[in-house]
Amino acid sequence: MKEDFEEFRRVAHQAVDWIADYLENARRYPVLPRLKPGELMDALPGCGPEQGEPYEALLADFERVVLPAVTHWNHPGYLAYFACTGSPPAVLGEMLAAALNTNGIHWLTSPAVVELEQVTLGWLRQWLGLPAEFFGEIFDTASVSSLHALAAAREMADPEARERGARPGLILYCSEQAHSSIEKGALVLGIGRQHIRKIPVDAEFRMRADALEQAIERDRAAGLRPFCIVATAGTTSTTSVDPLEAIADIAERHDLWLHVDAAYAGAAAMLPEKRPLFRGWERAHSIVVNAHKWLFTPLDLSAFYCRRPDVLRRAFSLTPEYLRTAEDPRAINLMDYGVPLGRRFRALKFWFVLRRMGRQGIIEALRAHIGWAQELARWIDEDSRFERVAPVPFSVVCFRLRAGDEENRQLLERINRSGRFFLSHTELNGRYVLRIAIGNLGTTRQDVREAWELIQRTADEL
Ligand code: PLP
């Protein structure tokens, strides 16, 4: 089918108008869709069309069928998980990247993809206060970034693994609050669940460095081979930060790879007042910070930093003849540093965000989110019906009604049914806990206040 570019131009303008209206007024929609599982699938034909359809039909069905099935992460009332939004400059970058459809397999297949990735991650690295030795690379998710960290750690500890296959008995350490992606990465690499040590946490949900060291010594004495520690800066449930300096000391003493999962909270290292929490992460071998969590960049963009790109390259470089190019030290071939061969132009949207918002603009947004979280924590503390169950170092507040798990579950369900707010939950010390995460560019202090008032009113009705 020959494209009619006049028609494309016309509908694309309409689509851009729609996008601008949507981003400006996302609160018009219910934050959670009101449909039953399977409804979208039932509303669409089981087979694709024989003949091409007009753009109008596509856009009409987008509004009629797709939109009602969307959970609006852009909604200012989205306060679940790690709330996050894209931003208009990122959307612009994503549109242009889709138009270019250029693929950074190696340098020559797209110098722009390869070099802009280095530029943007270089800027972010400096803003995070990390030293220049950290090589930056973009992956889709933190799960995949951490998988690469574990693979590099294994390569360092067991360089024979590449030829001979992995040796059993390698031991991985993380806290019991670490994200499930760490365990999943270990599963993929064949480390085996019985070789993952989930180190206990202190009363504020931070890994206990003394327990970590004891576990390593116990494993060594038993003839096992510790190879990697994963510390978390901003755990998923409470955003606690493991004691990074003490853990870096232990990693150095025992010659272990240290990976820091800062998928959500890493962005906050841009704030001078939060930087002390991250002290020690500059000694890690690798770090992940997700731009798609708290840096206003739509899915997906995970910034992976590695201080030993030589080890990463040893683990992953495998070049078939058809992909060989002339050697040039400045022509980086990112396919040598990870699993994916194809590499989409994610850096473009991120470059647009960094330039449009600037370091100060990002700092202001993060600071506002943290400030509102602190206020919310105060309101919770002042209402004796509720208890706050974890400190609030960043923009997430964990709390519960002083009642049973069932009442708390009902409270969450009623709030989420309102269509105005979406909250999520976790479990801490065996109890059901509600979580409010502020991270959306459209969220205002008034939204947070209204969420709290709705929670109070709903608690009255329970
Ligand atoms: N690490 C932490 C601390 C997280 O909270 C999450 C997700 O919330 C992840 C990793 C996984 O992120 P992704 O969805 O990018 O794989």
Structure write-up:
Helix content is 43%, strand content 13%. The chain has 462 residues and is an alpha/beta fold. It has a domain at 103-344: 3-Layer(aba) Sandwich (Aspartate Aminotransferase, domain 2), CATH 3.40.640.10. A hairpin with a 7-residue loop joins strand 8 and strand 9. Helix 6 (142-157) crosses helix 8 (180-188). The chain is globular. Pyridoxal-5'-phosphate is lined by residues 82, 141-143, 179, 181, 232, 234-236, 261, 263-264, 290, 302. Pyridoxal-5'-phosphate binds at residues 82, 141-143, 179, 181, 232, 234-236, 261, 263-264, 290, 302.
Please describe the structure with a list of short key phrases separated by commas or semicolons.
462 residues; alpha/beta; Aspartate Aminotransferase, domain 2; four-stranded antiparallel β-sheet; 15 helices; 11 strands; 43% helix; binds pyridoxal-5'-phosphate
Provide a brief overview of the structure:
With 462 residues, this protein is of the alpha/beta class.
SSE diagram, text form:
Blueprint: H1 5-24, H2 39-43, H3 55-66, H4 88-100, H5 111-127, E1 135-139, H6 142-157, H7 161-164, E2 170-175, H8 180-188, E3 196-199, H9 209-221, E4 225-232, H10 244-254, E5 257-261, E6 286-290, H11 291-294, E7 302-306, H12 309-316, H13 346-382, E8 386-388, E9 396-401, H14 405-417, E10 424-428, E11 431-437, H15 445-461
Parallel strand pairs: 2-3, 2-4, 4-5, 5-6
Antiparallel strand pairs: 1-7, 6-7, 8-9, 9-11, 10-11
Helix pairs in contact: 4-13, 5-13, 6-8, 6-12, 9-10, 13-15
The site of pyridoxal-5'-phosphate has 15 residues, from helix 6.
